Amino acid sequence: MNHIGKQQHHHYQHKKLMRIREVMQMTGISKSHIYHLSSTGKFPKSISLVPGGTSRAWVSTEVDTWLEERIAERDQEAYA
């Protein structure tokens, strides 16, 4: 594995793909609302698991970051 390949491998090794049910459980948001938020750029975009297929998944770290941003927004509003 070359230097760039090692960097890419390290970059992806801590990421996990989550299917819609797990995203729903993690966020407390309905399936349709997750897809709506994602389509409007207000939630992380899903990735296609199979080129040309319909199976979708979300990167867990992106969903974690989204949740952390919601918490930070809440906390900022509490101090405003």
Query: Number of DSSP strands?
Result: 3
Helical content, roughly? 55-70%
User: Helix- and strand-based class?
Assistant: mainly alpha
- Integer count of domains: 1
**Cross-sheet strand order for the largest sheet:** 1-3-2
**Multimerization state:** single chain
Care to describe what's here?
By secondary structure, the chain is mostly helical. The chain has a single domain, classed as Multidrug-efflux Transporter Regulator, Chain: A, Domain 2, CATH 1.10.1660. Helix content is 59%, strand content 10%. The chain contains 4 helices and 3 strands, in the order αβααββα. It has helices spanning 3-12, 20-27, 31-39, 60-79; strands at residues 17-18, 47-48, 56-59. The protein has a 3-stranded antiparallel sheet. It is globular. The protein starts with a helix and ends with a helix. The model has no long low-confidence stretch (mean pLDDT 88).
Summarize the structure.
This protein has 80 residues and is mainly alpha-helical. The chain contains four helices and three strands.
Topology:
Elements: H1 3-12, E1 17-18, H2 20-27, H3 31-39, E2 47-48, E3 56-59, H4 60-79
Antiparallel strand pairs: 1-3, 2-3
